[in-house]
């Protein structure tokens, strides 16, 4: 398994614990097609790609536009929708096997830091202050939005 865009590598770690072999990369590459070509060259025949990414066509992304929390160049350079990702990956000889939404959880301290950052930019500081006061940092929260998806691809 080659986990492209692996962030901290937790997905691959779970797969390794379950007996898989593989590697994870978090490339943040500017030339997407060049990066995918290199990843394809490193993937064995019938190898797998697992990609978790943000859905630029989700209602949250459309509603918030350039204020969407994942519209954050230069740390995020590429945004996809499920169909566009499937078409792109197929150019490199991969077919989609499965797609879904992860059951993501957030540490409240992290969520509050994001809220403070966006509050400063978007003038809703009172709400961020209230959340800081009422919500303990160690609380684990379910990710409340639908703008994240994963897809599993297999090399033909």
Q: What do you see in this structure?
A:
It is a single chain. With 156 residues, the chain is of the alpha/beta class. The protein has a single domain, classed as Rossmann fold (3-Layer(aba) Sandwich). It has helices at 10-17, 32-41, 59-64, 82-90, 108-122, 125-134, and strands spanning 2-4, 23-25, 48-54, 94-100, 105-107, 140-142, 148-155. It has a 5-stranded mixed sheet, covered by helices on one side. Strands 5-6 form a two-stranded antiparallel sheet. Helix 1 links the parallel strand 1 and strand 2. The longest helix has 15 residues, at 108-122. The protein is globular, with a radius of gyration of 17 Å. The mean pLDDT is 84.
Structural class: alpha/beta
CATH class: Alpha Beta
SSE succession: EHEHEHHEEHHEE
Query: Poorly predicted ranges (pLDDT <50, ≥5 residues)?
Result: none
Summarize the amount of helix as a percent range. 25-40%
Short description, anyone?
The chain has 156 residues and is of the alpha/beta class.
Q: Could you outline the blueprint of secondary structure elements for this entry?
A:
Layout: E1 2-4, H1 10-17, E2 23-25, H2 32-41, E3 48-54, H3 59-64, H4 82-90, E4 94-100, E5 105-107, H5 108-122, H6 125-134, E6 140-142, E7 148-155
Parallel strand pairs: 1-2, 1-3
Antiparallel strand pairs: 3-7, 4-7, 5-6
Helix pairs in contact: 5-6
């Amino acid at each position: 398994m080659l986990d492209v865009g692996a962030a901290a590598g937790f997905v691959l770690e779970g797969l390794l614990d379950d007996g898989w072999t593989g590697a994870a990369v978090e490339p943040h590459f500017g030339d997407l097609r060049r990066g995918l070509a290199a990843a394809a060259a490193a993937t064995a025949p019938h190898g797998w790609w697992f990609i978790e990414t943000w859905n630029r066509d989700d209602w949250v992304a459309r509603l918030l536009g350039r204020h969407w929390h994942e519209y954050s160049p230069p740390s995020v350079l590429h945004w996809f929708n499920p169909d566009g990702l499937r078409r792109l990956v197929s150019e490199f000889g991969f077919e989609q096997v499965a797609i879904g939404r992860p059951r993501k959880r957030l540490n409240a301290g992290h969520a509050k830091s994001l809220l403070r950052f966006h509050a400063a930019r978007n003038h809703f500081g009172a709400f961020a202050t209230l959340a800081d006061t009422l919500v303990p940092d160690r609380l684990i929260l379910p990710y409340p939005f639908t703008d994240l998806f994963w897809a599993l691809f297999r090399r033909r």
